Structure formats: C-alpha cells, structure tokens
Amino acid sequence: MTAADHRPAAFFDVDNTLTRGTAIFRFLVYWYAAQGRPPHEAVHARQRLKAMTVAGVSRRETSRAYFRLLTGASDVEITRLAGAWFLAEVAGGGFFHEPVLEALRAHRGDGYRVVLVSGSFSAVLLPLVEHIGAHHLLCTEPEVDPVSGTYTGRLPDHPHQPMIGSAKAAAVRELPPPHRIDLASSVAYGDHISDAPMLALTGRAVIVGDDPHLRRLGAHHGWHRLPKAPAPLAVPLPEPKPTPPGALL
Q1: What's the rounded Cα separation, in Å, for the pair 60 and 161?
Q2: Long-range contacts of range 120-127, CB-CB < 8 Å, 24 or more positions apart?
Q3: Is the per-residue pLDDT at 136 higher than 50?
C-alpha cells in the first residue's frame, strides 16, 4: 500500500468541543420530561453524578452510573426520543460550538475522514453523525437485552467501554488499518485532559477551551487552541402529551 492509499482523518470529541454542553445530560432532561417526570428528577440525577466526581470517583465509573439510569428503557423509544431531541436542539440554535463546526466542515471539504469519538452513546449521537456528515462514530455502547429490547443498565464486556480517556486513544489506534487512515497526517480536537491520549496520537492537535492541565500539555507539544464553547441554551422540551378525553384534571 502506498502513501497515496492513506487518508487523513479529523477526530472530534463531542461534548463541549463540537457541541455546547453535554449531550447525554441534555437528552436526560428531555427524556424525563417526555415521560412526564418532574424537572427536579433530572436535576437530582445530574447532581448525584457530579457529587461522585467531586468525591474522586473516576469518569469511567460516573459514566457507568449514568447508563444505569437507562435500565428498563426501550431501545426503540430512546432512539425515537433522541431523534426528536436532536431536531429540537438544532431548531433552537446554539447547539454547536461554531468554530469547531467550521473546522470540521473545512476538514471534510479537504478530504479528511471525519470521526466522532465520544463517551456518549449511539442513540444520542447518530442523529448528529447524519447531520454533520461524519464518516465514523466511536462511542459508548450500553447493553440492550436482545429479547426485551430494553437497556440493561450495564456496559458490555467489550474493549473501550466506556469510550473515555485512554479508551478513546485505543479505539482511534485500532481504526486506521481497515479504513486506511494515516494518523501522522491527521488532526484531533478535545476539551478535557482525558482527551490527551487521543490528541497525542495524531500529527496535529487542537485544544478547545481552558482546561489548565490540557493547556499546559498543549503548550509543551505546540498544539493549537480554539476558544471555550459558550454556555449552552436551555434544553428544549417535548410538547406535553394531550390530556385524554374524559380524564380527570
């Protein structure tokens, strides 16, 4: 295989890099609202996960705790609601971090393979993949029971699960051979120090935002930097379900 057979890729973290805010938490608010659950339940769920982080629990374990929230949920219903949520986000404007989205479009126009690498899961990410025209998706894949079609609340015993930290780098490293991607001529974007292993794999890297640890590392390696994503807008909520005729109010 000659050098001409290899293509560069642009690898993008998603949350607070390509998008403003964290997709899985924004979807959680939408999903709970679609079930008719009060807003404080989503707030409390997020606070519990934040408390785990403050207590020193690893991002891998807090990720597993998030996916336990999906236990018993229908895969089909989650996919449907995630599609509706994404359309509402895009319609409301302000979902994407524009400088990074512009960079993605430029890379794609230059013939790069666009790869999203995220700790989020496919139901939430696939509408985004289609919208921006990404070529590949590397993400967390929560377990779905094949009989009931519902989430078990667990992650499968597969490599790179959840897709966080060094798992991102390992997944990226395993992607090139079948897809003829040349890492030396590729570029990666990330906003958190946990993205550093992925950023270090490519010939160029771009830091997004102000993570002090990542900025120090970036200064050492000569990585470029884009501004921090602005604060996200309020999460769009689904239309309330109409009250059935004859129901007591």
Answers
A1: 8
A2: 120/14, 120/15, 120/23, 120/24, 121/24, 121/67, 123/75, 123/78, 123/79, 123/82, 124/23, 124/24, 124/27, 124/82, 124/85, 124/86, 125/14, 125/23, 126/79, 126/82, 127/82, 127/83, 127/86, 127/87
A3: yes
Judged against a pLDDT cut of 70, whether residue 104 lies above it is answered with yes
- Cβ(116)–Cβ(128) under 8 Å? yes
Its pTM stands at: 0.92
- Sign of the CA dihedral running 84, 208, 195, 210: negative
Domain positions in the chain: 3-226
CATH match of 3-226 with 3.40.50.1000 = yes
In tens, the pLDDT along 222-242 reads: 999 999 999 999 999 997 665
Following DSSP, what letter does each residue of 91-152 receive, concatenated? HHS--B-HHHHHHHHHHHHTTPEEEEEEEEEHHHHHHHHHHHT-SEEEEE---B-TTT-BB-
Helix (H, G, I), strand (E, B) or coil at 7: strand
User: pLDDT for 2-59, tens place per residue?
Assistant: 444 578 999 999 999 999 999 999 999 999 999 999 999 999 999 999 999 999 999 9
Token representation of residue 206: 């771009």
